[in-house]
Amino acid sequence: MPAYPQTIHFVGLNTPVGIEWAARNLDVIGAIPAEIDGAFFRAVPDPAHAPMFDDDIVLSGDGMVAKFTIQGGKVDYAIRYVETERHALEKDARRALFGRYRNPFTDDPAVAGRDRTVANTTPVWHGGRLLMTKEDGLGYEVDPDTLETIGRWNYHGAFTSQTFTAHPRVDPHTGEMFFFGYEADGLCSTKVAYGVADRDGNLVSEHWFDQPYCSTIHDFAITQQYAIFPIFPTTADLDRLKSGGAHWAHQQDLDSWVGIMPRDGKVAEMRWFRGRPGVSAFHIVNAFDDGDLVHLDLCLSDTNAFGFMREAGGIQRDQREISGGLTRWTFDLSKAGDGFEERLIGPPGDMPRLRDADQGRPYRSAWYLSMNPQGGPPLPGGPVGFAFNALLQIEPGNGRIDMMELEFGMAISEPVHVPSAQAGHDGWLLMVVDRQAGEADFKSELWVVDANAIAAGPVARVPMPLPMRAQVHGAWVSAAQLASAKAHQAA
């Protein structure tokens, strides 16, 4: 059996596991609140085969969809591979056939022109469907009960883009989902397809526009009136790909941009605002309107957080030297010009989580992951190679910050939020926490935390009996939503 490279992408919490398994009635330490009733889905990159090249990365790992089912204080767990076309081809061949990250010119000729996506980034629930998504291809629909893969989803052929974002946004009042695909008509294209689906999951509009250059648009935002597209200078180049090089290379001297357009799809009314050169953000907390002002809160850094993207652009920066923080950009749409205001509102961090009810609206608080220097050196793992070891709650209106500290040798993955039916209660956070138990031995637990009392730590813990690889993003789907799944109706 070919060995995996002993790089940061395949050791520590990134050690391949590759096991599909399920268990019922996992042990629970403490008590899970009865109102937590539904499923916590997680996207877990986990390569099923050793890569063709030793410089492969976490983001190339085959997508696994994991599910914690929580009902009546009991917890079940299951995890399965997403049966993408890529996974099926390599499973039949019993080896890797697809080459470097997002570079089809490095593939085995036997898979030329086949679907390369691994659907490993975000579980998305909308209109009764569960999709596993990665922004380099279309999403794959998965049965939320069995985790069986149903197939690629393109709104019955109505959505014409070749790609679909891993970060759509759902309006909590209208139920509409807003989404896009970049490189929409092929590699290194500047074309972006912007779509809107109604609450039942029907595509109601699709409009295309050009971004200033071909950048990785990982996330975007909506307000009650606008769709907001931040463009950062991590760019693709077709000649570089053809020579076997990296898809993405960060350009530190290139300007960033923000496009703001009416969210109903009037791309002709898009306004472009020029930002600082070299900055980068992969995840947005929220955006909202305030008269003529549009506020955008994002996890900003002074360069790209991914080492392989920096290095491809000739940038040699230690991960610990990257600066930034939770930042608010404010755009005054009543004024001419392409400038905007910038203000730091919170410490550095990423993987933010907002209450679904606050999407696109003024919000009181949000949560995100950060590094606590008192927690010791970070554990190796996760997409950037180092795992977070603290959870923050921030109230941007008054600057209040609270922190859930972890003990030495622990790490935390992105939380999901579960709303509470109790008046005045901020709900609950679910997250997977890892602990190093030996040089190459890691133990994982599901934690349940009171969302407005995070410093108190978990009210319940669920130890996991087998190793778990680090997730990217997750989603909470209530039992009521699961009962309306389209997969049930099809059956």
Automatic annotation (TrEMBL):
A Pfam family annotated for this UniProt entry: RPE65
Enzyme class of the recorded protein, top EC level: oxidoreductase
Note on how the cofactor is bound: Binds 1 Fe(2+) ion per subunit.
Enzyme nomenclature, EC number: 1.13.11.-
Cofactor(s) listed: Fe(2+)
UniProt record, GO biological process: carotene catabolic process
Key words, A-Z: Dioxygenase, Iron, Metal-binding, Oxidoreductase
Record-listed Fe cation binding positions: H167, H218, H283, H473
Superkingdom assignment: Bacteria
GO molecular function per UniProt: carotenoid dioxygenase activity; metal ion binding
Transmembrane region(s): none
InterPro entries noted in UniProt: Carotenoid_Oase
Signal sequence range: none
Entry similarity comment: Belongs to the carotenoid oxygenase family.
Protein's name in the database: Dioxygenase
Annotated source species: Sphingobium cupriresistens
Taxon lineage: Bacteria, Pseudomonadati, Pseudomonadota, Alphaproteobacteria, Sphingomonadales
